[in-house]
Amino acid sequence: MIPKRLQAYLQKQEIAAEAVSHRTVYTAYDLAQTTGLKLEQIAKTVLLSVQPGYGEEKAKYVLAVVPASHDLVIDKIKRLLKVKKVSFAKEVVMSKLFKVKPGAMVPFGAMHKNIPVIVDSNLAKMKKILVRSGSFTDSLFVRAKDVIAASEAVVGAMTKKAKRH
Q1: The domain that contains 64 carries what CATH number?
Q2: Could you give the CA distance from residue 15 to residue 145 in angstroms, rounded to a whole number?
């Protein structure tokens, strides 16, 4: 079931979304296998910690939305955001600060304390993508351009094609 808070957000933003119920899955790969979609069509939402500069500035968080078929390239993200340091946020941050389980984050920054969103250019080219809904049993088909517009996301190259076995 899609959380009511997310449903209200989508309605307020006038985002057309198609709910997709599926068996419980924890990874993008399993989601692709379950739905029969290509990994390129599935969006992973990754919480990153970014250090703006060299001083004592506090780390900030950014959501990176990328195709499941690709791996993040930290150096590309540093250049895109013009920051000194980028790392994957700890799972405890996701659960305590953002009240969401790892692997279930939605790609809308406004749903997570208005944190900035960056979208990989490969994903931005897609018409429709499948995103997580905050649960492990339901996902949403949305237009990539709606994710970008609703989050005022920065779009840029930040991934490389993943090597699969």
Answers
A1: 3.90.960.10
A2: 10
Nearest alpha carbon to residue 136 among 22, 39, 43: 22
Strand order in the sheet with 154-156: 85-88, 43-51, 60-67, 117-120, 154-156
Q: 81 with 48: CB under 8 angstroms?
A: no
Burial of 23 (0-12, 13-18, 19+ CB in 10 A): exposed
Q: How far is CA 116 from CA 39, 53, 76, in A?
A: 24, 17, 17
Split into its structural domains, the chain has a count of: 1
pLDDT in tens, the chain (165 residues): 888 989 999 999 999 999 999 999 999 999 999 999 999 999 999 999 998 765 556 668 999 999 999 999 999 999 999 998 999 998 888 887 777 788 888 999 888 888 999 999 999 999 999 999 989 999 999 999 999 999 999 999 999 999 864
- 65 lies in a domain? yes
Domain that holds residue 66: 4-125+136-161
SS3 state of residue 93: helix
9 found inside a domain: yes
